[in-house]
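@channel anyone free to eyeball this complex?
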Amino acid sequence: MVTKKEIKQSFFIALWFMVLTFPLMVIKVNTIKNIVVFRWTNLIWVGIVGFLASLIWNYFLRMKDEKKKADTKDNIPIVHRLLQNEKFRIPFLAAIGIFALVYPFVFPMYHTSIMISALVYVMLGLGLNIVVGLAGLLDLGYVAFYAVGAYAYALLNLHFGISFWVVLPIAALLGTIFGTLLGYPVLRLRGDYLAIVTLGFGEIIRIVLENWDELGNGPRGIGNIPSPSFFGHQFNQHNSVIYIYFIVIALVLLTIFFVNRLENSRIGRAWIALRDDEIACQAMGIDKFKTKLTAFALGATWAALGGVVFAAKTSFINPMSFTIWESITILCVVVIGGMGSAIGVIAGALVLILLPEYLRAVAEYRMLVFGALQVVVMVFKPEGLIQGVRKIYKFKKVEE
Amino acid sequence: MRKLNILLGVAIAGIAGFFGIKEIIADPVYFLELVLGGLTRGSIYALIALGYTMVYGIIQLINFAHGEIYMIGAMTALIVASVLGLWGWNSGVIVFLAFAFAILYSCAYGFTVEKIAYKPLRNAPRLSALISAIGMSLFLQNYVMLAQTPEFMPFESLIPDFQFWEPFAHIITAVEMSIIVTTVIVMILLGMLIKFTKIGKAMRATAQDKVMASLVGINVNRVISTTFVVGSATAAIGGVLIACHVGQVNFFIGFLAGIKAFIAAVLGGIGSVPGAVLGSLVLGISESMFTGYFWSEYEDVFAFTILVIILIFRPSGILGKDETSKV
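replying in thread with the prediction:
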C-alpha cells in the first residue's frame, strides 16, 4: 500500500535528485567549440525515474523490515529445493548436459565464442567464491592471478614452445605460488585493508606488465598464441573454437566438483566458520592464518587456469585485458549471484556476461548497472540472487 | 618485534639518507622543486584523505565512493566555470561561484550517497557495506561518463598567475602556492570545527562510542551525515584545486586520487585527523622524490608498495593507536 505521505516524500526526493543531477545531466559544455547545450528532457527523465525509484525503494525497505520481524526458518531458495528433489534432479541435470553438448553444433560460432567467455567467468567466479564467498576475504586484485595464467601460457609457448596441456598444470602451480606469495604478507590484515592491498597488487602487476617491455612487449602484448591441440592434431579455426568450448566445459565441471568437495571438507567448513566469527574460530583451534592462506592460494589457482584458457581462446593478450574492471566484474558475478553459493555464482556469471553481449545497445550502461546492482543487492538481498545453503545436521529422536 | 621494526626503519632511512645527501648536494634547486612539488601533491592528498579518515573514524567504513565525490566537485566547477565564462561574467565572480557550486554539489552527493548506500547497512557485516561502497563508486563514475563524456575535458585554471608571485614563479607556480595556502587554511578551520564547536564534540563522541553518544542525547545519524558533508566539502576543494593545477578533468580522476589519499590516511593512522595530514605530506613528498630520482613510470607501484610495507610493519599507521579486537 502506498500512502499519501509516501507519495509526497517521493515527490520531494525526485525534486532533490533533479537538483542534484542538474549540472551533470542537463548542461553539456563543449569547451573546444564553446557551445553550451541544455538537455532539458534529461531533467524530466531524472524526475520520473527518481520518483518511481524512491517509491519502490521505500516499499522494499518496508518489506525487508517486516520480513525481519516475521520468523523465517525455512528460507531455502527454490532452486535448491528443486535440486534436492530426486525426481526433478536427474532430468534437470540431463537437460543441462544435453544442451551443453549440442550447443556449439546448433548455434553459430559467434555464440559459442561468447559462451566460452561466459564459462571462463564461471570458473573465475567459482574461484573467487572460495576467497570472497566462503572465506570472507574481499579480494579486489583477483585479476592479477588471471594475468599470471594468461602470461604464463603466452610466454612459455613463445620461448619454449610448451603446449597448452603442459602449461595448464604449470600455470595452476604458478597461480598457487603467486597466491601464497602475495597472501603471505597481506593476510594478516583486517578485511577492509585487505581489499585495498589486493587492489594495489592487481594494479602493480598490470603496471609492471605495461612497462616491462622485455617480458611481454609492454602494452603491445603478445599475439599468435596457438589454440590447444588434440593429441598433436591441430584443428582449423572453426573446430578449434568448438574444441576450446568443450575444454572449458570440462574445466568448469572439474571446478564445480572440486569446489563442492572443498566446501564440505574440513577446510571448507573452517573457511565458513572463519568468515562468520574469527575469534570463536581461533578459540576452536583453527589456524586462522593458514586457513586463509589456503583459500587465497586455491582461489588464485582457478584464476590462473582461467587465464590460460583465455589466452588460448583470444590468441592475443595485452595488459589492457587485466584492469581493475575485470576484477570488479568477477566480484559482481560472485556478489550478485550469491556469495558462497556455487549455483548462484554460475547463474550470476551466465546472466551478467551473456546479457550485455546480447544487449549490445545497452552495453555501455553495463558498468553503471553493475554498480547500482551491487548497492541494491547489498541493501535488500545481501545473500545474493540464489542463496547458499548451509549444511544442517539434524538429530533424529530415538523412538522407544 | 617492535624494536626490530624500529631498527629496520632506521636502517632503511639511513641508507636512503646517505644516497639522498649525495644527490641533494649535486643539484639543490632540483631537490627544492621536488620537495615543493611533493608538498603540493601532499596537500591535495590531505584534502581528500580527511574525508576517508573522518568517515572511517565514525563508522569504520572505507568510503570507496569518496574519490568520486572529489571528481564530481572538479566536474561541477568545470561546468559552472565554462558556462559562466561563455556568458561573459566577471572572472572573480566565476572563481567564487565555481568553488561554491563545487562544494555545494559535492556535499549534496556525499550526503545522498550515505543515505542510499550506507545507512541501510549500518548494522550489516562490514564486507556488505564495503561492497556497497564499491558499487556506488562504480555507479558514480559511469554516471558521470555517460552524462558527460569519457574524454578528458580541458580545465582552464581558475587561479590567475598573481603579479606579486612573479619572482618566485620559477621554483613554485602561483597555482601550487595557492594549493598549499588553501590547504593550510582548510586544515586550521577543520581543526577548529572538530576541537571547539558543538558538532565537533559530537563527532568525537560518536567516533568513540556510538551507543554511548546516542545515550547522552547526540543524534548519531545527523552526526554521520555531517561527517560525510564536511569530508565531501574538503574533497571538493581538493578536486577544484588539482583540476586547476593539472588542467584537465575526466570521470576517472577520482579513482586513483581516492586510492592514494586512502593510502595516505592509512599511512598516518586511519581515524586520526592529524595523522591523515601527516601521512599525506609524507606520501606526497616521498612519491615526488621517487619519481624525480628513480623511475617515473612506476609512480603508482611505489604508493602501493608503501601501503603494503606500512600495513605489514605498522598496521595502525604513524599516529594511530594499536587496537586489539575484543569479543
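from a first look: The beta strands of chain B are 153-154, 248-249.
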